[in-house]
Amino acid sequence: MSTMQSMPAFDVEALRRGIEERDVATMRGLYAENAQMTVVDRRDQPSHPHQISGASAIGEFLEELCSRDMEHRLEQVVVSADGSHAAYLERCRYPDDTTVLATSMLDLRDGRITAQTSLQEWDEESGGARPEAAPTAAAEAAERVEHLDFSKPDEVRTFGHGRAEIFNVGGGVIGRLVLEPGWRWSEDVKPLAGTEWCEAPHFQYHVSGTIRVHMADGTEFDAKAGDLTLLPSGHDAWVIGDETVVVVDWQGAVHYAEKP
């Protein structure tokens, strides 16, 4: 008789300790390496949120946040029964009593955060002013003009039946995936990723070819030239037909197909 293995549990106590003790190392350990964070506040509006890609960049963001003179308290945490999602409410207070409420929605896989969306609301009535955050690489990059040649990537990562061309721009990463007929993630990239499913969330424009996407929940569809797709963590994909697939990926290319 076979038994079903349970998904590793999300460590709520580590989350509480990391937030309330401003322990960046503990917080950093809760994120998958290819995690994505989206922050919406007064400065970064919903139409142009602050996007942070990769656990390393998220760690830098958290380090700056924890360096501020403020108290943090985790007020409520809810984790879904299947361990795939969580939400929490955090209250922060500055010495002048300015209060910030932050609510976060989390996508989880194997007990780690793969995607986080954080919404912040600031208390203006106390008379306190929001301190300006230290400039991030993305913020500094946004102050200058960049003009890249799309035929000259900063890095090329090769794998079976394809390659990922990586471009560093605007403090972030854009990827162009070139996938030849016969390519399949579970055969050509899975050995590099070391995970059962592709854990990189994607926001992609499909330039050419047709690719079939199979989600971990059984959902399956074909994406073709001219389509836009937004894929959460947990999927497989493969090329359909004899035409090379080319996609431009604004999310998920940071660590895609990196060699261990």
Question: What do these coordinates show?
Answer:
The structure is a single chain. The chain is of the alpha+beta class. It has two domains: 12-139, Nuclear Transport Factor 2, Chain: A (Roll); 155-251, Jelly Rolls (Sandwich), CATH 2.60.120.10. It contains six helices and 15 strands. The chain has helices at 12-20, 24-28, 55-66, 137-141, 185-188, 190-193; strands at residues 31-40, 50-53, 71-79, 85-93, 99-109, 112-122, 155-159, 162-169, 172-179, 202-208, 210-215, 220-224, 228-231, 235-240, 245-251. The strands form three sheets. Strands 2-1-6-5-4-3 form a six-stranded mixed β-sheet, covered by helices on one side. Strands 7-8-9-15-10-13 form a six-stranded antiparallel β-sheet. Strands 12-11-14 form a three-stranded antiparallel β-sheet, with no helix packed on it. The protein is globular and about 65 Å long. This is Nuclear transport factor 2 family protein. InterPro entries: NTF2-like_dom_sf, RmlC-like_jellyroll, RmlC_Cupin_sf, SnoaL-like.
Sum up the structure in keywords:
260 residues, alpha+beta, Nuclear Transport Factor 2, Chain: A, Jelly Rolls, 2 domains, six-stranded antiparallel sheet, 15% helix, 42% strand, disordered N terminus
Q: What's the CATH topology label of the largest domain?
A: Nuclear Transport Factor 2, Chain: A
Radius of gyration, in Å, reads 20 Å
- Integer average pLDDT: 85
CATH architecture of the largest domain, please? Answer: Roll
Envelope shape:
globular
Report strand order across the widest sheet: 2-1-6-5-4-3
Total domains, how many?
2
Pfam families: SnoaL_2 (PF12680)
Protein name: Nuclear transport factor 2 family protein
Organism: Streptomyces misionensis
Domain SnoaL-like: 12-115
